[in-house]
Amino acid sequence: MAAIDVQDLRKTFKVQKNRGGLKGAFVDLFKREYSEVTAVKDISFQIPEGEICGYIGENGAGKSTTIKMLTGILVPTSGRLTVGGYVPYEEREKFVRNIGVVFGQRSQLWWDIGVIESFELLRKVYRVGEADYKKRLDELVERLELQELLNRPVRKLSLGQRMRCELVAALLHNPSIVFLDEPTIGLDIVVKSEIRSFLKDMNREHGTTILLTTHDLQDIEALCSRVIMLDDGRIIYDGGLDELKQRWGTGREVAFQFGTATKLDRLEHLTAGMPVKWTAENNLAATVWIPLELNVSDVLGRVVGQADITDIKIIETNTDDIVRSIYQSGSANVAEEAVPAPSREGAGHV
Amino acid sequence: MYHLGLLSEYLKNYMKTRLTYRADFWVEVLSDLLFQVTNLIFIFVIFMHTNSLVGWSQSEVVFVYGFFMVPWGVFACFVNMWNFSERYIVKGEMDRILTRPAHNLFQIFLENVDPPSLIGSFIGLFIMAVSGFNMGLPFEWWTIPALIVLTISASAIYMGIYTTLTALSFYSDAPTGIIPLMYNIQSYGRYPVTMYNRAIQVLLTWILPFAFVGVYPAGLFLQREEMTRMALLTPVMGAIFVSIGLFVWNRGVRKYKGAGS
């Protein structure tokens, strides 16, 4: 059974249009105009139990709106969704006992009281038994190294410390589905990687289903077997990260350092007949761009031995670049390419 | 049981945080008291000019005021929604509330408990006792049970009205100024309603039933025959208004739009 099942989910907000100027404000007082903004446009996806899925997209693409519908905060305008066997907004109180939610930009903890008191309060709210709570808390505290923080008030914690406490707070009741909305926002690299490895372990040990949104693609690379990419309320990509790289990555680059001055046209001559592109930074350094369908070794074979090479560096396509180019490109074209199932993609290559 | 347990947990935490800001606590208590004293002085000033207000003596009006303070204190302690719109809607804290397994309105009540308000209730009881003793009111076996039932019912009326009004912030983008207005209207309920014109009497009895949080129930203890029936109706009104409040609230939550990203 899928942990999360979403069918044609749509959310429309009614937004009040404000007229400009003082006169406009007066007119607004009597006659309001509303415009409808559709934040999420009929999306469908399933996430099986135990999967870590990344949910990415530009600001305003509809990520948070989706997460809020999945967690029962917002009521969808239309479409069906079930999460962990419940319709989130209908049986909210029963449903949330089985999920954990972390909003990176908002605190779940009580600001003025000690961390441990916040946890104690959450234990009561979630009706976790004393023994279970102790076991779970010990496990989490040890894993995230919170021992010295437990008695400090939340307002005196650093962001990294707070975020680790937020994770514990969201996981005390051992939820089977966890939603993380930008869990690594604003954190330093050490805390980020700590949180990533923690999430990964949790997924492996408890089989927790995780859906996370992020702007940091390293989160995705480290954690997710699957990515759902959203643009303007529509899913433009749903699949593995490697596949994403393959499909959108245009090629690889190889940078050469030469011992003696090597002219660009000589290099071009060496790889004549190959669809590669050379650029020279100076006489001693040049870069070649190699499309995906060509083997890097074929190109290297032509160059190595013919030129006096001191260093070679192969530059893999960076996910950041890929995602940036997807965000920037006309999403309509991309969407057409992205939606078809893998089987049709195979046919396309013939 | 679950809910009572949570209440005591939240109260404990309230005490822990509040006792660290002791000065704040006493300032709040003091300003509350000053406000009540001004109201009482106002009553005394009126009775310096007349001996009776539509057939009510000074002691009776003071007694009604004393009763009025009791449910008001209870309500203000447990149902404190003055900053709901800014805190939960504009800042989006409602998100957090909605992802926890207790009824959302109950959680909001818990997060805003304000025990100092209860001091007002005790002063109200004291005023009732003193003015009741001065008038030689009988103390019957049912006095205490009736006081408890009527206090709970009157608090329920407040809760129903304010929950309904607060729920409006789910529908409108901008917070409305209707709550301060309500605040003013409710103070009419602590004077004998018969002194107002017919329209206001109807308003205070059936539409915004603030007469049920002051003069009607107090009339029961003052042995005012004409009010006894109304006093007994207080629990019914409480139940009706709480139901309306919860209904509007639950509908409102479905309209919640969230804030920010």
TrEMBL record, chain A:
Keyword Ribosomal protein among UniProt keywords: no
Chain ranges of the ABC transporter domain: 24-257
GO MF, one example: ATP binding
Superkingdom assignment: Bacteria
Database matches in Gene3D superfamilies: P-loop containing nucleotide triphosphate hydrolases (3.40.50.300)
Pfam families, per database record: ABC_tran
UniProt keywords, alphabetically: ATP-binding, Nucleotide-binding, Transport
Protein name, entry field: ABC-2 type transport system ATP-binding protein
Organism the protein comes from: Paenibacillus forsythiae
Top-level taxonomy: Bacteria, Bacillati, Bacillota, Bacilli, Bacillales
Automatic annotation (TrEMBL), chain B:
Pfam families: ABC2_membrane_6
Keyword Transmembrane helix set for record: yes
Family matches, as InterPro entries: ABC-2_transporter-like
Keyword Nucleus in annotation: no
Lineage of origin: Bacteria, Bacillati, Bacillota, Bacilli, Bacillales
Keyword annotations from UniProtKB, A to Z: Membrane, Transmembrane, Transmembrane helix
Protein name: ABC-2 type transport system permease protein
Segments crossing the lipid bilayer: 25-50, 62-84, 141-161, 199-218, 230-249
